[in-house]
Amino acid sequence: MNLFATWSLRLVVCVAGALGQTRPAALESRLSPRPGSSDLAALDVPTPAPSTSPLVPAAKNAAAAPPKPGDQHTGFEFIDTSFENASPLWYEIADDGSIQVHLVYDHERTSPNRAAGHFHFQIQARTGSKLTIEFKNLDNVYNGRLASVANELKTAVVSENGRDWSPLPLEGLPENRVRLTVPMPTSKLFVARVEPYRLSDLDHLLTAIRGNPLVEITPVGKTIEGRELEIVRIGDPKAPYRAFIRARAHPWEAGGNWVVQGLIHRLLKDDADAKRFLGCYCLWVMPMANKDGVARGLTRFNAAGKDLNRDWDRPSDPQLAPENDALEKWLESMITAGRRPHLAMELHNDGSGLLHISRPPIPGLARYLERMAAFEELLRKHTWFTEGSTKDSSGNAATLGEGWLERYGIDAVVHEFNCNWIAGLKDYPTGRRWENYGERLATVLYEYFGTVKP
Ligand SMILES: [Zn+2]
User: Fold this and answer.
1) How many domains does the chain have?
2) Is the backbone of residue 363 left (phi > 0), alpha (psi -120 to 50) or beta?
3) Domain span at residue 97?
4) How far is the CA of 387 from the centre of ligand 1 (A)?
5) Entry pTM
6) pLDDT of amino acid 3
7) What is the pLDDT of residues 332-361, one digit of tens each?
8) Burial status of residue 214 (CB atoms within 10 A of its CB: 0-12, 13-18, 19 or more)
9) Which candidate among 66, 386, 432, 445 keeps its CA 20 to 30 Å from the CA of 42?
10) Is the pLDDT confidence value at 46 over 80?
Protein backbone atom coordinates (compact mmCIF):
# COMPACT_ATOMS: atom_id res chain seq x y z
CA MET A 1 0.00 0.00 0.00
CA ASN A 2 1.39 3.40 -0.75
CA LEU A 3 1.88 6.11 1.81
CA PHE A 4 -1.01 8.33 0.77
CA ALA A 5 -3.53 5.51 0.77
CA THR A 6 -2.44 4.52 4.28
CA TRP A 7 -2.54 8.07 5.57
CA SER A 8 -6.00 8.64 4.19
CA LEU A 9 -7.14 5.38 5.74
CA ARG A 10 -5.65 6.26 9.11
CA LEU A 11 -7.38 9.62 9.03
CA VAL A 12 -10.72 8.02 8.18
CA VAL A 13 -10.30 5.35 10.88
CA CYS A 14 -9.45 8.00 13.50
CA VAL A 15 -12.44 10.11 12.50
CA ALA A 16 -14.66 7.03 12.70
CA GLY A 17 -13.29 6.36 16.19
CA ALA A 18 -14.12 9.88 17.30
CA LEU A 19 -17.66 9.52 16.04
CA GLY A 20 -18.27 6.15 17.67
CA GLN A 21 -19.02 2.86 16.02
CA THR A 22 -22.03 3.94 13.94
CA ARG A 23 -20.58 5.58 10.88
CA PRO A 24 -22.60 8.15 8.92
CA ALA A 25 -23.55 7.00 5.41
CA ALA A 26 -21.24 9.52 3.77
CA LEU A 27 -18.26 8.21 5.76
CA GLU A 28 -19.22 4.61 5.07
CA SER A 29 -19.18 5.34 1.35
CA ARG A 30 -15.65 6.76 1.68
CA LEU A 31 -14.50 3.59 3.38
CA SER A 32 -16.03 1.48 0.62
CA PRO A 33 -15.64 3.47 -2.58
CA ARG A 34 -17.95 2.27 -5.35
CA PRO A 35 -16.40 1.21 -8.64
CA GLY A 36 -16.13 4.33 -10.73
CA SER A 37 -16.66 6.55 -7.74
CA SER A 38 -14.70 9.73 -8.22
CA ASP A 39 -14.74 11.38 -4.81
CA LEU A 40 -11.35 9.97 -3.75
CA ALA A 41 -9.93 10.14 -7.25
CA ALA A 42 -10.75 13.84 -7.39
CA LEU A 43 -8.45 14.30 -4.41
CA ASP A 44 -5.78 12.29 -6.21
CA VAL A 45 -5.88 9.70 -3.45
CA PRO A 46 -5.44 6.12 -4.73
CA THR A 47 -8.17 3.65 -3.84
CA PRO A 48 -7.02 1.41 -0.97
CA ALA A 49 -6.54 -2.30 -1.61
CA PRO A 50 -8.13 -4.09 1.40
CA SER A 51 -6.68 -7.51 0.60
CA THR A 52 -3.08 -6.39 1.18
CA SER A 53 -3.74 -4.04 4.08
CA PRO A 54 -3.27 -4.87 7.76
CA LEU A 55 -6.34 -2.71 8.29
CA VAL A 56 -9.92 -3.63 7.54
CA PRO A 57 -11.18 -0.52 5.81
CA ALA A 58 -14.69 -1.63 4.92
CA ALA A 59 -15.89 -3.07 8.22
CA LYS A 60 -19.66 -3.29 8.09
CA ASN A 61 -20.46 -3.49 11.75
CA ALA A 62 -18.98 -2.87 15.15
CA ALA A 63 -18.01 -6.51 15.73
CA ALA A 64 -15.78 -6.55 12.63
CA ALA A 65 -14.29 -3.12 13.23
CA PRO A 66 -10.46 -3.11 13.39
CA PRO A 67 -8.67 -2.13 16.59
CA LYS A 68 -7.86 1.53 16.75
CA PRO A 69 -6.11 3.96 19.07
CA GLY A 70 -8.27 4.47 22.15
CA ASP A 71 -9.72 0.94 22.20
CA GLN A 72 -10.02 -0.41 25.72
CA HIS A 73 -8.72 -3.88 24.84
CA THR A 74 -5.44 -2.66 23.33
CA GLY A 75 -4.99 0.29 25.70
CA PHE A 76 -2.93 2.14 23.08
CA GLU A 77 -3.62 5.84 22.58
CA PHE A 78 -0.87 7.75 20.80
CA ILE A 79 2.78 7.95 19.74
CA ASP A 80 4.30 11.35 20.53
CA THR A 81 7.23 12.51 18.37
CA SER A 82 7.01 16.20 19.25
CA PHE A 83 10.25 16.44 21.24
CA GLU A 84 13.99 16.85 20.71
CA ASN A 85 15.63 13.92 18.84
CA ALA A 86 12.30 12.10 18.33
CA SER A 87 12.37 10.11 15.11
CA PRO A 88 10.08 10.84 12.16
CA LEU A 89 7.56 8.01 11.73
CA TRP A 90 3.92 7.20 11.09
CA TYR A 91 1.85 4.33 12.40
CA GLU A 92 -1.34 2.30 12.06
CA ILE A 93 -3.02 -0.45 14.05
CA ALA A 94 -3.15 -3.94 12.50
CA ASP A 95 -6.06 -6.38 12.88
CA ASP A 96 -4.19 -8.21 15.63
CA GLY A 97 -3.88 -4.98 17.64
CA SER A 98 -0.15 -4.55 16.99
CA ILE A 99 1.12 -1.03 16.34
CA GLN A 100 2.78 -0.93 12.95
CA VAL A 101 5.49 1.73 13.13
CA HIS A 102 6.80 2.92 9.79
CA LEU A 103 10.13 4.69 10.17
CA VAL A 104 10.87 7.40 7.62
CA TYR A 105 14.07 7.09 5.59
CA ASP A 106 16.54 9.91 5.27
CA HIS A 107 18.19 10.04 1.85
CA GLU A 108 21.65 10.72 0.50
CA ARG A 109 22.01 13.36 -2.18
CA THR A 110 22.87 12.17 -5.73
CA SER A 111 22.86 8.54 -4.56
CA PRO A 112 20.38 5.68 -4.10
CA ASN A 113 21.44 5.41 -0.44
CA ARG A 114 18.76 5.77 2.22
CA ALA A 115 18.71 5.02 5.91
CA ALA A 116 16.13 4.29 8.61
CA GLY A 117 16.71 2.49 11.88
CA HIS A 118 16.79 5.28 14.41
CA PHE A 119 13.74 5.31 16.62
CA HIS A 120 12.95 7.47 19.63
CA PHE A 121 9.36 8.22 20.57
CA GLN A 122 6.96 8.27 23.49
CA ILE A 123 4.11 5.77 23.68
CA GLN A 124 0.99 6.85 25.48
CA ALA A 125 -1.27 4.00 26.58
CA ARG A 126 -3.23 2.62 29.50
CA THR A 127 -1.04 1.75 32.51
CA GLY A 128 -0.74 -2.03 32.77
CA SER A 129 -1.44 -2.70 29.10
CA LYS A 130 1.02 -4.76 27.03
CA LEU A 131 1.70 -3.42 23.56
CA THR A 132 3.18 -5.08 20.51
CA ILE A 133 5.08 -2.77 18.20
CA GLU A 134 6.34 -3.81 14.78
CA PHE A 135 8.96 -1.76 13.02
CA LYS A 136 8.79 -1.58 9.24
CA ASN A 137 10.62 0.27 6.50
CA LEU A 138 13.98 -1.16 7.43
CA ASP A 139 15.09 -1.74 3.84
CA ASN A 140 18.04 0.60 3.76
CA VAL A 141 20.29 1.19 0.78
CA TYR A 142 23.93 1.21 1.91
CA ASN A 143 26.88 1.86 -0.40
CA GLY A 144 24.44 1.57 -3.34
CA ARG A 145 23.03 -1.83 -2.34
CA LEU A 146 19.78 -2.87 -0.64
CA ALA A 147 20.75 -3.79 2.91
CA SER A 148 17.98 -4.20 5.48
CA VAL A 149 18.95 -2.98 8.92
CA ALA A 150 16.46 -5.44 10.51
CA ASN A 151 19.12 -7.94 11.54
CA GLU A 152 21.09 -5.21 13.35
CA LEU A 153 18.06 -4.32 15.48
CA LYS A 154 18.39 -6.64 18.44
CA THR A 155 17.75 -4.40 21.44
CA ALA A 156 15.81 -1.28 22.30
CA VAL A 157 15.76 0.82 25.45
CA VAL A 158 12.75 2.18 27.34
CA SER A 159 12.41 4.87 29.98
CA GLU A 160 9.61 6.41 32.00
CA ASN A 161 11.38 9.75 32.48
CA GLY A 162 13.74 10.01 29.49
CA ARG A 163 16.76 9.76 31.85
CA ASP A 164 16.88 6.24 33.29
CA TRP A 165 16.79 3.61 30.55
CA SER A 166 16.46 -0.17 30.55
CA PRO A 167 17.12 -2.57 27.67
CA LEU A 168 14.44 -4.72 26.04
CA PRO A 169 15.11 -7.38 23.40
CA LEU A 170 13.79 -6.99 19.86
CA GLU A 171 12.49 -10.00 17.96
CA GLY A 172 13.24 -10.55 14.26
CA LEU A 173 10.24 -11.39 12.04
CA PRO A 174 9.99 -12.52 8.42
CA GLU A 175 10.20 -9.90 5.67
CA ASN A 176 12.72 -7.76 7.56
CA ARG A 177 10.29 -6.73 10.26
CA VAL A 178 11.22 -6.37 13.92
CA ARG A 179 8.92 -6.70 16.93
CA LEU A 180 9.06 -5.09 20.36
CA THR A 181 6.73 -6.19 23.16
CA VAL A 182 6.32 -3.44 25.73
CA PRO A 183 4.56 -3.67 29.08
CA MET A 184 3.35 -0.21 30.10
CA PRO A 185 4.41 0.45 33.72
CA THR A 186 2.87 3.91 33.44
CA SER A 187 0.77 5.79 30.88
CA LYS A 188 3.78 7.30 29.09
CA LEU A 189 6.93 5.44 28.08
CA PHE A 190 9.88 6.56 25.96
CA VAL A 191 11.25 3.98 23.52
CA ALA A 192 14.59 4.39 21.72
CA ARG A 193 17.12 2.39 19.74
CA VAL A 194 20.06 3.36 21.99
CA GLU A 195 20.20 5.48 25.11
CA PRO A 196 19.67 8.96 23.70
CA TYR A 197 22.24 11.75 23.94
CA ARG A 198 20.54 14.94 22.81
CA LEU A 199 21.73 18.45 21.99
CA SER A 200 20.50 19.46 25.45
CA ASP A 201 22.75 16.78 26.97
CA LEU A 202 25.73 18.24 25.13
CA ASP A 203 24.75 21.78 26.18
CA HIS A 204 24.58 20.57 29.76
CA LEU A 205 28.11 19.08 29.50
CA LEU A 206 29.56 22.20 27.88
CA THR A 207 27.93 24.45 30.48
CA ALA A 208 29.41 22.31 33.26
CA ILE A 209 32.99 22.40 31.92
CA ARG A 210 33.08 25.91 30.47
CA GLY A 211 35.17 28.08 32.75
CA ASN A 212 37.50 25.27 33.80
CA PRO A 213 41.05 26.58 33.07
CA LEU A 214 41.85 23.26 31.35
CA VAL A 215 38.98 23.71 28.88
CA GLU A 216 38.64 25.83 25.79
CA ILE A 217 35.45 25.69 23.69
CA THR A 218 35.89 27.26 20.27
CA PRO A 219 33.08 27.81 17.75
CA VAL A 220 34.38 26.66 14.35
CA GLY A 221 31.32 26.95 12.11
CA LYS A 222 27.64 26.23 11.73
CA THR A 223 25.52 23.34 10.50
CA ILE A 224 23.21 23.61 7.48
CA GLU A 225 20.42 24.76 9.82
CA GLY A 226 22.66 27.25 11.65
CA ARG A 227 23.51 25.30 14.80
CA GLU A 228 26.92 26.17 16.22
CA LEU A 229 29.69 23.59 15.85
CA GLU A 230 32.41 23.62 18.46
CA ILE A 231 35.82 22.13 19.11
CA VAL A 232 36.44 21.38 22.78
CA ARG A 233 40.04 21.38 23.93
CA ILE A 234 40.95 19.61 27.17
CA GLY A 235 44.44 20.25 28.53
CA ASP A 236 47.54 22.14 27.52
CA PRO A 237 47.93 22.66 23.75
CA LYS A 238 51.72 22.52 24.24
CA ALA A 239 51.59 18.96 25.63
CA PRO A 240 53.94 16.55 23.77
CA TYR A 241 51.10 14.60 22.09
CA ARG A 242 47.78 15.57 20.52
CA ALA A 243 44.64 13.42 20.19
CA PHE A 244 41.52 14.31 18.24
CA ILE A 245 38.08 12.68 18.48
CA ARG A 246 34.91 13.32 16.48
CA ALA A 247 31.54 11.91 17.52
CA ARG A 248 28.06 11.80 16.06
CA ALA A 249 28.67 12.17 12.31
CA HIS A 250 25.65 9.83 12.06
CA PRO A 251 22.82 11.12 14.22
CA TRP A 252 21.38 7.84 15.53
CA GLU A 253 24.76 6.77 16.93
CA ALA A 254 24.64 8.28 20.41
CA GLY A 255 27.30 5.92 21.79
CA GLY A 256 30.18 8.16 20.70
CA ASN A 257 28.78 11.06 22.70
CA TRP A 258 28.67 8.98 25.88
CA VAL A 259 32.29 7.87 25.29
CA VAL A 260 33.44 11.46 24.77
CA GLN A 261 31.58 12.62 27.89
CA GLY A 262 33.25 9.90 29.99
CA LEU A 263 36.70 10.77 28.62
CA ILE A 264 36.26 14.51 29.24
CA HIS A 265 35.05 13.94 32.81
CA ARG A 266 38.02 11.64 33.48
CA LEU A 267 40.56 14.15 32.19
CA LEU A 268 39.03 16.93 34.31
CA LYS A 269 38.98 14.87 37.53
CA ASP A 270 41.78 16.87 39.14
CA ASP A 271 43.63 13.84 40.49
CA ALA A 272 47.19 12.54 40.02
CA ASP A 273 46.25 10.33 37.04
CA ALA A 274 44.52 13.19 35.23
CA LYS A 275 47.60 15.37 35.74
CA ARG A 276 49.78 12.59 34.35
CA PHE A 277 47.50 12.11 31.32
CA LEU A 278 47.36 15.83 30.53
CA GLY A 279 51.11 16.17 31.00
CA CYS A 280 51.45 13.69 28.13
CA TYR A 281 48.70 14.70 25.72
CA CYS A 282 46.10 17.31 24.89
CA LEU A 283 42.68 16.32 23.61
CA TRP A 284 40.57 18.11 21.01
CA VAL A 285 36.99 16.96 20.35
CA MET A 286 34.23 17.81 17.91
CA PRO A 287 31.51 16.27 20.08
CA MET A 288 28.48 16.39 17.80
CA ALA A 289 29.10 16.82 14.07
CA ASN A 290 25.55 16.18 12.82
CA LYS A 291 23.57 18.39 15.21
CA ASP A 292 20.75 18.95 12.72
CA GLY A 293 20.22 15.22 12.33
CA VAL A 294 20.33 14.70 16.11
CA ALA A 295 17.76 17.46 16.68
CA ARG A 296 15.39 16.01 14.07
CA GLY A 297 15.92 12.37 15.09
CA LEU A 298 17.36 11.33 11.71
CA THR A 299 19.39 8.20 11.08
CA ARG A 300 22.43 8.96 8.92
CA PHE A 301 22.69 12.02 6.68
CA ASN A 302 22.93 15.76 7.31
CA ALA A 303 20.13 18.18 6.42
CA ALA A 304 21.46 18.49 2.85
CA GLY A 305 21.62 14.71 2.35
CA LYS A 306 25.39 14.34 2.83
CA ASP A 307 27.08 11.53 4.73
CA LEU A 308 29.59 13.24 7.04
CA ASN A 309 31.75 10.12 7.18
CA ARG A 310 32.30 10.07 3.42
CA ASP A 311 34.07 12.24 0.82
CA TRP A 312 37.13 12.80 3.01
CA ASP A 313 39.31 12.00 -0.03
CA ARG A 314 38.73 15.57 -1.31
CA PRO A 315 38.13 19.07 0.11
CA SER A 316 34.76 19.37 1.86
CA ASP A 317 31.84 21.16 0.23
CA PRO A 318 31.09 24.27 2.34
CA GLN A 319 27.49 24.47 1.05
CA LEU A 320 26.42 20.82 1.35
CA ALA A 321 28.65 19.65 4.20
CA PRO A 322 29.52 22.77 6.26
CA GLU A 323 29.97 20.44 9.28
CA ASN A 324 32.93 18.78 7.52
CA ASP A 325 34.17 22.04 6.00
CA ALA A 326 34.40 23.62 9.47
CA LEU A 327 36.34 20.65 10.79
CA GLU A 328 38.66 20.56 7.79
CA LYS A 329 39.49 24.27 8.11
CA TRP A 330 40.14 23.82 11.83
CA LEU A 331 42.42 20.83 11.12
CA GLU A 332 44.36 22.74 8.47
CA SER A 333 44.84 25.66 10.88
CA MET A 334 46.17 23.20 13.48
CA ILE A 335 48.62 21.77 10.93
CA THR A 336 49.72 25.27 9.91
CA ALA A 337 50.32 26.06 13.60
CA GLY A 338 52.53 22.96 13.90
CA ARG A 339 49.91 21.05 15.90
CA ARG A 340 48.99 18.12 13.68
CA PRO A 341 47.13 15.47 15.76
CA HIS A 342 49.16 12.31 16.41
CA LEU A 343 45.96 10.23 16.55
CA ALA A 344 42.39 10.84 15.36
CA MET A 345 39.37 8.74 16.29
CA GLU A 346 35.97 8.84 14.58
CA LEU A 347 33.28 7.29 16.84
CA HIS A 348 30.24 5.36 15.55
CA ASN A 349 27.64 2.72 16.47
CA ASP A 350 26.72 -0.37 14.46
CA GLY A 351 25.84 -4.02 15.04
CA SER A 352 29.48 -5.23 15.14
CA GLY A 353 31.67 -2.85 17.11
CA LEU A 354 34.91 -3.24 15.17
CA LEU A 355 37.86 -0.92 14.90
CA HIS A 356 38.00 0.09 11.20
CA ILE A 357 41.59 0.41 10.08
CA SER A 358 42.03 1.79 6.56
CA ARG A 359 44.68 0.67 4.13
CA PRO A 360 45.07 3.37 1.48
CA PRO A 361 48.19 3.15 -0.71
CA ILE A 362 50.39 5.51 1.32
CA PRO A 363 54.09 5.43 2.07
CA GLY A 364 54.56 4.15 5.61
CA LEU A 365 51.37 2.05 5.60
CA ALA A 366 53.12 -0.85 7.34
CA ARG A 367 54.27 1.39 10.21
CA TYR A 368 50.76 2.84 10.54
CA LEU A 369 49.31 -0.68 10.76
CA GLU A 370 51.84 -1.54 13.49
CA ARG A 371 50.81 1.52 15.49
CA MET A 372 47.12 0.65 15.09
CA ALA A 373 47.82 -2.91 16.23
CA ALA A 374 49.48 -1.50 19.36
CA PHE A 375 46.50 0.80 19.91
CA GLU A 376 44.09 -2.12 19.57
CA GLU A 377 46.11 -4.10 22.11
CA LEU A 378 45.87 -1.25 24.60
CA LEU A 379 42.10 -1.01 24.07
CA ARG A 380 41.85 -4.71 24.92
CA LYS A 381 44.09 -4.23 27.95
CA HIS A 382 42.40 -1.22 29.56
CA THR A 383 38.76 -1.31 28.36
CA TRP A 384 36.07 -3.91 27.71
CA PHE A 385 36.93 -3.88 23.98
CA THR A 386 37.12 -7.40 22.52
CA GLU A 387 35.51 -7.04 19.08
CA GLY A 388 38.68 -6.75 16.97
CA SER A 389 39.54 -4.82 13.82
CA THR A 390 38.90 -4.91 10.08
CA LYS A 391 41.46 -6.72 7.97
CA ASP A 392 40.61 -4.85 4.78
CA SER A 393 38.86 -1.56 4.15
CA SER A 394 36.85 -2.36 1.03
CA GLY A 395 33.42 -0.79 0.90
CA ASN A 396 34.15 2.07 3.26
CA ALA A 397 36.32 4.34 1.14
CA ALA A 398 36.76 8.01 1.96
CA THR A 399 35.78 7.82 5.61
CA LEU A 400 37.37 10.35 7.93
CA GLY A 401 39.75 7.59 9.03
CA GLU A 402 40.94 6.88 5.51
CA GLY A 403 40.86 10.48 4.22
CA TRP A 404 42.86 11.98 7.10
CA LEU A 405 45.46 9.26 6.79
CA GLU A 406 45.77 9.68 3.04
CA ARG A 407 45.51 13.46 2.73
CA TYR A 408 47.10 14.68 5.97
CA GLY A 409 49.28 11.77 7.09
CA ILE A 410 47.35 11.54 10.39
CA ASP A 411 46.98 8.19 12.16
CA ALA A 412 43.19 8.01 12.02
CA VAL A 413 40.80 5.21 12.84
CA VAL A 414 37.02 4.68 12.89
CA HIS A 415 35.81 3.05 16.11
CA GLU A 416 32.37 1.43 15.96
CA PHE A 417 30.55 0.50 19.18
CA ASN A 418 28.15 -2.44 19.08
CA CYS A 419 24.71 -0.97 19.82
CA ASN A 420 23.17 -4.32 20.90
CA TRP A 421 25.66 -6.03 23.15
CA ILE A 422 29.00 -5.56 24.92
CA ALA A 423 30.74 -8.90 24.46
CA GLY A 424 33.50 -8.01 26.94
CA LEU A 425 30.94 -7.42 29.69
CA LYS A 426 28.38 -9.97 28.46
CA ASP A 427 25.73 -7.31 28.91
CA TYR A 428 23.70 -4.65 27.14
CA PRO A 429 25.30 -1.29 26.34
CA THR A 430 24.12 1.72 28.31
CA GLY A 431 25.15 5.34 28.36
CA ARG A 432 26.97 4.70 31.64
CA ARG A 433 28.96 1.77 30.19
CA TRP A 434 30.01 3.85 27.19
CA GLU A 435 31.01 6.67 29.56
CA ASN A 436 33.09 4.10 31.45
CA TYR A 437 34.79 3.17 28.16
CA GLY A 438 35.65 6.85 27.67
CA GLU A 439 37.10 7.06 31.19
CA ARG A 440 39.38 4.12 30.44
CA LEU A 441 40.31 5.56 27.06
CA ALA A 442 42.18 8.26 29.00
CA THR A 443 44.63 5.55 30.15
CA VAL A 444 44.79 3.95 26.67
CA LEU A 445 45.84 7.25 25.11
CA TYR A 446 48.44 7.84 27.84
CA GLU A 447 50.07 4.43 27.34
CA TYR A 448 49.77 4.62 23.55
CA PHE A 449 51.64 7.93 23.33
CA GLY A 450 54.09 6.89 26.05
CA THR A 451 55.07 3.55 24.51
CA VAL A 452 54.48 3.89 20.75
CA LYS A 453 55.72 7.52 20.61
CA PRO A 454 54.08 8.21 17.23
ZN1 LIG B 1 28.07 5.54 11.68
Assistant:
1) 2
2) beta
3) 22-192
4) 16
5) 0.86
6) 37
7) 999 999 999 999 999 999 999 999 999 999
8) middle
9) 66
10) no
